[in-house]
Amino acid sequence: MHIAPPASAGPFVHGGASIARDMRLVMLALLPATLFGLWQFGWPALLLFAITLATVVVTEALCLWLAGRPLRPFLGDGSALLTGWLLALSLPPWAPWWIGVIGGVIAILIAKQVFGGIGQNPFNPAMVARVALLIAFPVEMTSFVAPVPLGSDAAPGLGEALAIVQGGAPLDAYSGATTLGVVRTALDQGETLSGILGTSFAPFSAALGLHGGSLGETSALLLLLGGLGLIFTRVIGWQIPAAMLGTLALLATVMHIHDPTHYPDATYHLLGGATMLGAFFIATDPTTSPVTARGRLIFGAGCGLLIYVIRTWAGYPEGVAFAVLLMNACTPVIDHYVRPRIHGRDRRGRALVGAEHPETRR
Amino acid sequence: MALFSIFPRRKTFDHGIYPVEHKELTADKPIRRLPFAPELVIPLEQHKGKPAIPTVRVGQEVVRGEPIAEADGHVSVPMHAPATGVISDIALAPTAAGPKALAIYLKVYQAASQRVLFGLERDLATLSREALVAAVQQAGLVGLGGAAFPSHVKLMPPAGRTIETVLVNGCECEPYLTCDHRIMLEQTESLVRGIELVLRATGAERAIIGVEDNKLDAVEHLRRQLPAHLPITAEAVRTKYPQGAERMLITSLTGREVPIGGLPADVGVAVYNVGTLAQMGELLPKGQGLIERVVTVSGPGVERPGNFMVPVGTPVRFLLEQVGLKDSYGEVILGGPMMGMAVASLDVAVTKAVSGVVVLEREDLDLAERKVYPCIKCGACVEACPISLNPSVLGELAQVREYAAMAEHYHLDQCFECGCCAYVCPSNIPLTQYFRIAKAINREDK
């Protein structure tokens, strides 16, 4: 018997969680909404999706190579792919190819690798790219199409799709803005809510996603399904989605009761825009959200509040990206002040006196 | 109400993890005796506190049970000869912790009897509290759950503190280990006697045996066996790691938290492991010393896993030869796979603190030895830490060697190295190792 094992100490076992596993599960949860979006918007959307994903992977590889870090483990963790995936889902489905390419480069190079790669970025890379694109290319980023499902007569063929992705889509194809955009414009022009929504908003079809919008944001129902799956498999906590959707719904309800002619109700806010994608897939990004459960509740509530404020009173019809980025900036502060109460200490960090459990749970 | 009884919510503590238990390998294996190893190695420091002082010379013959070293002061315990034989040497021997330490080498006589030949039977009923505490020290009893703190010290709470409740720790939350489970099933009488002695010595009003609910057979068995005239109850607590940690079990069973820097006595509690009390109940009436303990030998690297009564000082190599060590083994761990230590040499001896010898195969270790990624601040460790530290920030500080800040601002000293944070980390960061190193460096800097 040859015996020379190295000396070391536990734990010698591991639960099996890994970054790659979590990323794969998130992508799996995104799959239904993604496939729905691709079916709904056809070949141009599929090409844009592929271009964006290819861009992030190539950019990530280049950055890793420049930084002298090993390619395989870091490309293999799937984090870059997920960033590209989320970015693609938030783009207008018929946007030209260079929107995907520039967005992908911004997300990986500027929002992630410049800060030191995975785990180091203070802001959500996909949302940084989305906001940068929105500000730099407002026309391309707000030109939405009505759904033309694959197989329908109006759906562009592959050749047509190539032309669209090269930026040559006929202008009349862009049927205008999203529900959020339509309502915002009309409200600004002094119309009343019932007049506008009567023609452009039906909660049921909005939930299913049978309307124009970003590539993967239209089907609130499928996103909700995937998000609940992630909570169930414990890839994400329930705190951020619950606080974010709850705050948004609460504000919308209160304002709607206050003045129904100018403030749409909660279903409109929950089902419209990037709310579902943001609540379950964007705001829950581990790196850019707080580490404690209470911190996450605050973070989620902040996102919900900011989304409502931006959608209602600020210059843009949609505010999820801005809201998440603003709350990302607050994350270090939240983590600094919101800390768990340590066993045997009170909330202020002093030793317990009298030793009774301060929070009577049982 | 009916619904709640289908899903009973057992008492427990906050956070923690649910590692795979692997207890089925040995849970139904009764405690067996093994032959003596040809030579025993008895380290003089098997307990917290000062090492024992040898009272034997090289060449001296000793009988099984005879004292061979005496306690050095209050926080120390004596040693007894685990077998009949001759003292062959008093010299340095390898220990599980790493550095060599002084030990008594005992050459065991061939065909030496398993009977204990040294002891002084006595009537415990007439002993005063002080005499009882002294008897516990003379028996060389230490916490057999792994802490190895001298048992008699805990019987004497500091001035101004009284013990109201004795908690008997039968949780055994480490994966693979089943020795405490078997002790509760097979040594019930001694265990009850031990609890009775501790109740008398501390003056406590009641005792609660806390058992994880993966051992409900033990709970039911204890409930049937517990005499009605004693204030002892058995209670199931949730199977969750580290339920068996002293501070966690106190919170689970009493709802109280030991204040930072305090002792269990500060909340009126003393905690004893079931193995310790079973030995106390067994040894004290006979006036004998602690010379053996129950050890679970298990893991995928062992051919015939089981629970064994092992004489203190038995080399791990000998023990593994008895149960069959597979050639594919990766690490031999003393204790459980969460908090145990891998031995650097199989010549290390089983001491009073060793509750298990777990042999993992190479492939079992692969998961824990994968590539380490940067921290993604997912907070999984924060959710797992049973004392609610922030291992994520502590780990980042450790990487930039801010060891002092870890202690000053993030309560590093409260970490008891349970391993939950490293177990759940998706980036596979060896957080527990970091904290162990940081604490060692902070100790040196003081």
TrEMBL record, chain A:
<feature type="transmembrane region" description="Helical">
    <location>
        <begin position="47"/>
        <end position="67"/>
    </location>
</feature>
<feature type="transmembrane region" description="Helical">
    <location>
        <begin position="266"/>
        <end position="284"/>
    </location>
</feature>
<comment type="subunit">
    <text>The complex is composed of six subunits: RnfA, RnfB, RnfC, RnfD, RnfE and RnfG.</text>
</comment>
<dbReference type="InterPro" id="IPR011303">
    <property type="entry name" value="RnfD_bac"/>
</dbReference>
<dbReference type="Pfam" id="PF03116">
    <property type="entry name" value="NQR2_RnfD_RnfE"/>
</dbReference>
<keyword id="KW-0472">Membrane</keyword>
<feature type="transmembrane region" description="Helical">
    <location>
        <begin position="320"/>
        <end position="338"/>
    </location>
</feature>
<feature type="modified residue" description="FMN phosphoryl threonine">
    <location>
        <position position="178"/>
    </location>
</feature>
<feature type="transmembrane region" description="Helical">
    <location>
        <begin position="25"/>
        <end position="41"/>
    </location>
</feature>
<keyword id="KW-1003">Cell membrane</keyword>
<feature type="transmembrane region" description="Helical">
    <location>
        <begin position="296"/>
        <end position="314"/>
    </location>
</feature>
<comment type="function">
    <text>Part of a membrane-bound complex that couples electron transfer with translocation of ions across the membrane.</text>
</comment>
<keyword id="KW-1133">Transmembrane helix</keyword>
<keyword id="KW-0285">Flavoprotein</keyword>
<keyword id="KW-1278">Translocase</keyword>
<keyword id="KW-0812">Transmembrane</keyword>
<protein>
    <recommendedName>
        <fullName>Ion-translocating oxidoreductase complex subunit D</fullName>
        <ecNumber>7.-.-.-</ecNumber>
    </recommendedName>
</protein>
<keyword id="KW-0813">Transport</keyword>
<feature type="transmembrane region" description="Helical">
    <location>
        <begin position="97"/>
        <end position="115"/>
    </location>
</feature>
<feature type="transmembrane region" description="Helical">
    <location>
        <begin position="127"/>
        <end position="146"/>
    </location>
</feature>
<keyword id="KW-0997">Cell inner membrane</keyword>
<dbReference type="InterPro" id="IPR004338">
    <property type="entry name" value="NqrB/RnfD"/>
</dbReference>
Automatic annotation (TrEMBL), chain B:
<feature type="binding site">
    <location>
        <position position="375"/>
    </location>
    <ligand>
        <name>[4Fe-4S] cluster 1</name>
    </ligand>
</feature>
<keyword id="KW-1278">Translocase</keyword>
<dbReference type="InterPro" id="IPR019554">
    <property type="entry name" value="Soluble_ligand-bd"/>
</dbReference>
<keyword id="KW-0472">Membrane</keyword>
<feature type="binding site">
    <location>
        <position position="421"/>
    </location>
    <ligand>
        <name>[4Fe-4S] cluster 2</name>
    </ligand>
</feature>
<keyword id="KW-0411">Iron-sulfur</keyword>
<dbReference type="InterPro" id="IPR026902">
    <property type="entry name" value="RnfC_N"/>
</dbReference>
<keyword id="KW-0813">Transport</keyword>
<keyword id="KW-0479">Metal-binding</keyword>
<feature type="binding site">
    <location>
        <position position="385"/>
    </location>
    <ligand>
        <name>[4Fe-4S] cluster 2</name>
    </ligand>
</feature>
<feature type="binding site">
    <location>
        <position position="415"/>
    </location>
    <ligand>
        <name>[4Fe-4S] cluster 2</name>
    </ligand>
</feature>
<dbReference type="Pfam" id="PF13375">
    <property type="entry name" value="RnfC_N"/>
</dbReference>
<feature type="binding site">
    <location>
        <position position="425"/>
    </location>
    <ligand>
        <name>[4Fe-4S] cluster 1</name>
    </ligand>
</feature>
<feature type="binding site">
    <location>
        <position position="378"/>
    </location>
    <ligand>
        <name>[4Fe-4S] cluster 1</name>
    </ligand>
</feature>
<keyword id="KW-0997">Cell inner membrane</keyword>
<keyword id="KW-0004">4Fe-4S</keyword>
<dbReference type="InterPro" id="IPR037225">
    <property type="entry name" value="Nuo51_FMN-bd_sf"/>
</dbReference>
<keyword id="KW-0249">Electron transport</keyword>
<dbReference type="InterPro" id="IPR011538">
    <property type="entry name" value="Nuo51_FMN-bd"/>
</dbReference>
<dbReference type="InterPro" id="IPR017896">
    <property type="entry name" value="4Fe4S_Fe-S-bd"/>
</dbReference>
<feature type="binding site">
    <location>
        <position position="381"/>
    </location>
    <ligand>
        <name>[4Fe-4S] cluster 1</name>
    </ligand>
</feature>
<feature type="domain" description="4Fe-4S ferredoxin-type">
    <location>
        <begin position="361"/>
        <end position="396"/>
    </location>
</feature>
